[in-house]
Design the sequence.
């Protein structure tokens, strides 16, 4: 059984001391914040917001942790994205089909230890990230 997002889930993605906090709300919204936050009152204004309404609403994206403490949310589509505020360490990037093929080949080869899937299906993410040999620690609360 696949478990989709539930209201007010806090999910932490950590790699080499850098954490991205994801907060899922209302079963159709996800917010991604640069940093490790555990309480709603501590969340900063800067974030990436994904809205995926409707019966078929979904998203399947990737977080890529790079040098210089930078993190990229690789946007595959499926949701309506919005950047709130500016953050030089956390950026969103769209991917075209040719780039997606090369990226997926690298994932399947297990050569991208600094990347992990982030989607509404948290159980599937865990299985996929393990298969891809991701070194990113994911903590779901």
Sequence:
């Amino acid at each position: 059984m696949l478990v989709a997002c539930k209201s007010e889930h806090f999910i932490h993605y950590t790699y080499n001391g850098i954490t991205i906090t994801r907060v899922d709300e209302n079963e159709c919204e996800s917010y991604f914040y640069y940093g490790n936050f555990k309480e709603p009152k501590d969340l900063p204004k800067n974030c990436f917001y994904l809205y995926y309404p409707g019966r078929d609403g979904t998203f399947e994206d990737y977080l890529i942790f790079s040098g210089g403490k930078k993190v990229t949310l690789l946007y595959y589509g499926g949701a309506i994205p919005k950047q709130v505020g500016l953050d030089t360490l956390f950026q969103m990037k769209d991917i075209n089909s040719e780039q997606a093929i090369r990226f997926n080949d690298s994932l399947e080869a297990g050569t991208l230890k600094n990347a992990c899937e982030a989607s509404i299906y948290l159980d599937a993410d865990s299985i996929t990230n393990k298969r891809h040999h991701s070194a990113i620690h994911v903590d779901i609360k």
User: Anything to note?
Assistant: The radius of gyration is 14 Å.
